[in-house]
Design goal:
Length: 129
């Protein structure tokens, strides 16, 4: 497998898994969907947690524990994070980091309609001389 075909193969495996889970186990598909909707929040929280555990600035466990311990230490928090995310997505539309990102890019909180007289539609048209 070459580096050029690896992303396509990964995407096809992920799509096949989602199709399989959607038909056979809809609850598992909902958990994965919630995780996908909060992917930035998930990435940031996992990065912070693993940086705390592995770097020398805190616990400094890098190169001190075996592979099995690291995998277990990643799987347990990830499972609890999936549970928390699926419960949170039942109540809110966006994760915390996604809400901040959408607020910054839209210039307003998502879900609210823009106020009249603001935004590009209210700007004075350009005049060509």
């Amino acid at each position: 497998m070459s580096p050029l075909t690896a992303p396509e193969l990964t995407a096809s495996y992920a799509c096949g898994l989602l199709l399989l889970l959607t038909g056979a186990r809809p609850a598992a598909a909902r958990v994965l969907a919630a995780s996908g909707r909060m992917v930035l929040t998930q990435y940031l929280s996992q990065s912070l947690a693993l940086a705390f555990v592995l770097t020398g600035h805190s616990l400094g466990l890098h190169d001190r524990v075996g592979t099995a311990v690291v995998l277990a230490g990643c799987a347990l928090p990830h499972g609890s994070q999936l549970t928390l995310e699926s419960r949170l997505m039942e109540r809110v539309r966006y994760g915390p980091a996604e809400l901040v990102l959408r607020t910054v890019t839209l210039g307003r909180r998502p879900g609210r309609s823009p106020s009249p007289g603001s935004g590009p539609a209210a700007a004075e048209p350009l005049r060509v001389a």
